[in-house]
Amino acid sequence: MTLSPEQKQSVAQWVSAGASLSDIQKKLAEQFQLSMTYRDVRFLIDDLNLELKDTAPKVDASDVTKAPPRATPPAAPAERKGFFDKAKEKLGLGKDEEPEAGPADEAEAEEFEEEAPAGASNVRVAVDKLVIPGALASGTVTFSDGVTAKWLVDQYGRPGLTEVSRPGYRPSAEDSRAFMQELSAALQRQGY
Description:
This protein is α+β, with helices and mostly antiparallel strands. The protein contains six helices and four strands; from the N terminus they run αααααββββα.
């Protein structure tokens, strides 16, 4: 598109007055009925050997006292809870707190130790090779009472159970702890 000398003179005046590319684009449409794309206006400015004025104030980088204050990043959200922190919270445990053993728990622990070898648990966790869509990891779990379910860890690190073989089932506190331990070990073996 070719501009008349008067139109070129007007564009030069707008640029020297500090107009932006979008301002020039609007003025060309309003005053001369010329419809140009933003890119075409940019090329026009280049063709006319004009330089747009930088509207941002320049700061002497050598003197930090003259620098405008930097935008402070938003306050960091409260510490994000990890998978196991959330699980401990659901079990009513603090972040670094271990469950207290009462007389009944000690008796159950002794029975448990007799039933299973040291470090073993009656909760079995398997990790899927093909992850459930939308999950970071998934697999199956069999609790000590034989109830089975599919588990998953979502994008936010939240654990969940689906397709539980017994509707309304909630694992015991011991099974929950064992599940979390087995899940942690299984995910670590898989490189998570």
